[in-house]
Design brief:
The complex is a heterodimer of chains A (487) and B (233). Chain A folds into two domains: 2-37 and 274-484; 58-269, Jelly Rolls (Sandwich). Helices cover 39% and strands 25% of the residues of chain A. Chain A is built from eleven helices and 19 strands. Chain A has helices at residues 2-11, 13-35, 242-246, 282-303, 305-312, 316-352, 362-390, 393-403, 405-412, 418-427, 460-484; strands at residues 58-60, 62-69, 73-87, 96-98, 105-111, 120-126, 131-135, 139-142, 149-155, 158-164, 171-176, 183-190, 194-199, 205-210, 212-223, 230-234, 251-254, 259-263, 267-269. Chain A is elongated. The mean pLDDT of chain A is 90. In chain B, helix 1 (3-16) packs across helix 6, helix 2 packs parallel to helix 6 and helix 4 (56-77) runs antiparallel to helix 8 (154-171). The model of chain B has no long low-confidence stretch (mean pLDDT 87). Classes of the chains: A alpha+beta (487), B mainly alpha (233). Chain B: This is ABC transporter permease. Chain B: The chain crosses the membrane at residues 20-38, 58-77, 98-121, 133-151, 158-175, 208-227. Chain B: Keywords: Membrane, Transmembrane, Transmembrane helix.
């Protein structure tokens, strides 16, 4: 029966043409997007952000006072003072105020070398989020909220971090293993920019970032690593703000039993990254696919072919399921072809225009590609089921668009308030677009994680499941109607 | 047939088939449903007026499809042959359809916008976004009518019109070049026209509506040309 339906599909020129249009739209739109993107830095190639040990593009810019630790050892210190400045914060943007941004951090770190992007483990006091144990840019674990005493120790391949409120009773906050050879151990200070975001009517958020600086005074220092403390500004770009030039330069000062560090930046996953836009064409392709999927069933009703079909295979539910399998399978295959063509082409054009495409890793790549194909297939089945349920092509197409394209548009165009948009992307078949989210939302970086910025409220698999549930539900309704109704 | 008679004939057609009245009712219901949902889920937003009129984003799709059906439906059933036999000059048919569609859309839009304003419940809802939205909806309907007269297939016309209304704005976020994005934003029929609803982006909003009007006029001219030139066997 599936073969019969497949023969029907491939012998109607308009449907095959429609599917080919979808593939062309997918590839073409991706190409157009990439061709329209240019990045240049004073007519040279822009420097790429560092890539962390786990493959992500990362931000690695901080003040580092360090010694070399060849074997086992530990460093203990208390954060006596932690303060800073924020330049020109809202609402008036007219003065520099004292204060720390929520994720400003000062603490102890073990890092393999002073190159940006190298492995590290750190126990840091943050301004608003207590003590955190972070390692390799993406991992973040909460420690005690009120602790000011920090300790980091290395034993063999393990680096373990502790925190304490009084310097006597210590809690273990986290361990990172896999260390070998000599490492740098020392103090770190970082203060990410002060961020405000507002919705852009053209989609996405307009993010404003303002310079901040933090200073920390460490005392009660016990270190097993010997020698003098050396200072480096990791990941320095050589630029200095007026504040740094005129008021307080970043750097280290050592007292008789204190060490003061001043600096800016962040040690975290990069969040304003773009993947090569080879998935940009999914939405235009979806529109073409919706039309084909609806017509695949409604034209049977319109031309009366359905009577012949049901005469040949009187089991109505099975007939509907067979057609659903064909339209889903054909769409999946076409979408996969589109992705396979678009990915290398679009990525090449995107990079050739000087843009940096954030690395995603093989698993994420597979999920983005297969997930998009599955999303298009599941949505096609939704549209097909609507066609079978309503039997009128135009009505079914409008409903299919209203259920999939419109919610996605409303949620991502920054028109709708974020919370309402997120509900649309939880409940409607557009939830499946969650498979296109390339990076997780990192709690330890302040960033507008809205649908308009490409962050979805559901996990990829959960989003796709919502779309599939819609497809299954609509298909059930269509089956019930077909079983009951006269043709 | 004199023009008033053509208009009356088209009026009879529009009123006796369920499509247009149904679409008008659906538009009001859909618009107000979205408006109520938005009202329930929204606490604080930078542009409450625009958000209050958000339901029209869905309503415009229904109106557009009804406009497509008004013309393409005749091609689907072959009724167009009788229509053109009665009016050999042809273009008055399209003009009469445009007139009736404009009247129907305006009535629908007035009710929908009034409903949105009432649901919004704030005193002093600004006039420009409300009136502008009514005009915008009328222009979208005419754009869809013109597209259907040009393409003559209901499915293809609906695809093109809904693509213009919904795909163009959603592609903006994929255009990283701000100049491109800005051009598409100002040239797209939906993105340019709905700027009339904004109380934040108040830079030349009526010009945005003029862009939508240009789309509608262009589509109607193309449709009239197709009607005059092409064979309609």
């Amino acid at each position: 029966m599936i073969r019969a339906e497949f023969t029907k599909f491939r012998s109607v020129r308009g449907w095959v043409l429609g599917l080919a249009t979808a593939v062309a739209l997918f590839v073409g739109m991706g190409w157009l997007t990439a061709a329209g993107s240019f990045t240049s830095c004073d007519d040279q190639a822009c420097p790429s952000p560092p890539v962390g040990p786990e493959g992500q593009a990362v931000e690695d810019h901080f003040g580092f006072a360090h010694r070399t630790l060849t074997g086992d050892g530990s460093l203990t210190a208390r954060v006596r003072d932690f303060s800073g400045i924020i330049t020109y914060p809202p609402p008036n943007h007219d003065e520099i105020v004292d204060g720390l941004v929520p994720w400003a951090k000062a603490g102890l770190i073990v890092k393999s070398d002073i190159n940006p992007g190298s492995p590290y483990a750190a126990i840091m006091l943050t301004a608003d989020h207590g003590v955190r144990f972070q390692h390799n840019y993406v991992h973040d674990a909460a420690g005690p909220v009120d602790a000011r005493w920090l300790r980091i120790s290395r034993s063999g391949a393990d680096v373990t971090a502790y925190a304490s409120a009084d310097g006597r009773n210590w809690t273990t906050v986290g361990t990172m293993s896999g260390w070998s050879g000599p490492v740098r151990i020392g103090f770190a200070i970082a203060s990410p920019p002060d961020i405000t975001a507002k919705g852009n009517p053209m989609g996405g958020s307009i993010v404003q970032a303002r310079f901040t600086q933090a200073s920390a005074v460490f005392d009660q220092i016990t270190s097993t690593a010997g020698g003098a403390w050396r200072y480096d500004e990791v990941g320095a770009d050589g630029l200095r703000t007026d504040w740094e030039k005129l008021h307080r330069a970043p750097g280290m000062t050592t007292g008789s039993d204190t060490l003061t560090l001043t600096g800016s930046g962040d040690i975290a996953p990069a969040t304003d990254m773009r993947v090569a836009p080879y998935l940009a064409g999914a939405l235009p392709a979806l529109l073409a696919i919706l039309v084909v999927a609806v017509l695949f069933i409604t034209s049977e009703f319109r031309r009366g072919l359905i009577r012949t079909t049901l005469l040949a295979s009187p089991h109505r539910a099975r007939m509907l399921a067979a057609k659903a399998a064909v339209i889903g399978g054909v769409t999946f295959a076409a979408a996969l072809i589109a992705v396979v063509v678009a990915r290398p082409l679009v990525s090449h054009v995107f990079r050739a225009n000087g843009n940096f495409a954030a690395p995603t890793g093989l698993l994420t790549d597979l999920r983005l590609s297969l997930g998009t194909a599955a999303l298009l297939a599941a949505t096609a089945v939704c549209a097909y089921a609507l066609g079978a349920l309503l039997r009128r092509g135009l009505l079914a197409i409008v409903l299919a668009v209203a259920l999939t394209v419109v919610p996605y548009l409303l949620a991502t165009a920054s028109v709708l308030p974020v919370a309402a948009g997120e509900w649309l992307l939880r409940l409607t078949p557009a939830a499946g677009f969650a498979v296109q989210q390339a990076f997780p939302a990192y709690e330890q970086v302040f960033h507008p994680y809205t649908p308009a910025d490409g962050y979805f409220p559901l996990a990829p698999a959960a989003g796709l499941a919502v779309t599939c549930l819609w497809a299954a539900g609509l298909l059930t309704l269509a089956t019930v109607r077909l079983n009951r109704a006269d043709i | 047939m004199p023009i008033p008679a053509v208009v009356r004939a088209e009026w009879t057609k529009a009123r006796t088939t369920p499509d247009l009245p149904l679409a008008m009712a659906l538009t009001v219901v859909a618009t107000l449903t979205v408006a109520a949902l938005v009202k329930a889920t929204t606490a604080d937003t930078p542009d409450p007026v625009r958000v209050g009129l958000l339901g029209l984003q869905l309503g415009q799709a229904i109106i557009a499809v009804a406009a497509v059906q008004l013309v393409a439906g005749e091609y689907g059933t072959g009724l167009i042959r009788s229509s053109l036999l009665a009016v050999p000059r042809r273009w008055p048919v399209l003009a009469a359809k445009a007139l009736i569609l404009t009247a129907a859309t305006t009535a629908t839009a007035v009710v929908s916008v009034a409903g949105c304003v009432l649901l919004d419940g704030r005193p002093g809802f600004p006039v420009r976004p409300a009136v502008g939205s009514v005009v915008y909806l009328g222009l979208v309907a005419l754009l869809a009518l013109g597209a259907a007269a040009t393409l003559r297939s209901a499915t293809a016309s609906a695809g093109v019109v809904l693509g213009l209304l919904f795909l163009v704005p959603s592609m903006l976020r994929w255009l990283p070049d701000p100049d491109w994005a800005d051009f598409v934003y100002r040239a797209g029929p939906a993105t340019a026209g709905t700027r009339i609803q904004s109380t934040v982006d108040v830079d030349t909003p009526w010009r945005g509506l003029a862009v939508t009007a240009a789309w509608a006029v262009g589509a109607l001219l193309l449709g009239a040309l197709t009607l005059q030139r092409r064979d309609h066997g």
